[in-house]
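Here's my example:
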Amino acid sequence: MSLGEFDLIARYFDRPVRRSPLGIGDDCALLAPSPGMQLAVSTDMLVEGRHFLSTVAPDRLGHKALAVNLSDLAACGARPLAFTLALSLPRAEAPFLAGLARGLFALADRHDIELVGGDTTSGPLNLCITVFGEVPAGGALLRSGARPGDELWVSHPLHDDEPGWLGDARLALEVFRGTPGLHVPGEAFERLRLAMECPQPRVALGQALRGLATSTIDISDGLMGDLSHVLKRSGAVHGEAGRPLGARLEADWLPRSPLMRAQDDGRQLECLLAGGDDYELLFTAAPERHEAVLAAGRHSATGVRRIGHLTTGGGLEVVGHDGQRLATPWASFDHFRA
């Protein structure tokens, strides 16, 4: 049986809400943030063939569509409130929609965020989600607060057998591409595939870093590329004339999975620094807040690792265990140059 537009909304996406006086079904959703709070809003789109493979399971696709948006709220230090979903479908197929909704709402329930509206249409498979969160007025984490001397940190899973380590999503993509010389056993590949298809947004850590981190960004286009955004934005605010903000990154300090450690050095470095699709938090904090950052990681049940510090020399320097600068010939991911 073919489903109509409003039938599929009612069957798969209509749920009771608490934060919106209306829920879905009206022309607009209504949200009321708590007194003294600001709304944090972000939008991300997932396009088949660009952001996900056609072979991805529907529940994982639903998870990732929301996860990449929640990661933006995490980078802002915001508490999730609600989201909207714009969905383009080539066909309205019940098994696909049931799986998509299952993965979407499982993650939504885990982070206490509600679907309050959206749109559906016929067309190429495309999911566009807008998330709304709240953060204390003046308390949002930004990209523009880093200063010279700040320590540079990145989040990571707590245990070796957990999926989602830095660079693992890129390693999975290389397996899918059939990169010569890359061999990953089946069970190990499933962990890599989970990293690519089911990223874990660090929402609790983002909130724990409010008032502690001087700048924050989530890693979506590769660590080096996203760090460059922080250096540019923060340098415009805090950089001294003629002395732009830079960073020194210690390659040996980068957290990595056992699967990544088994790869050759060149592949490791490329995946770790330029892989993208990690959705871990990259952030800076003053050196005197070192122990407080570790406590924030423990409080949010998230691993955190110091990987370098900011400098006044400009640019990004990646050094090995001997202190020698390493070649990093990779560009940040760009949708119109990839």
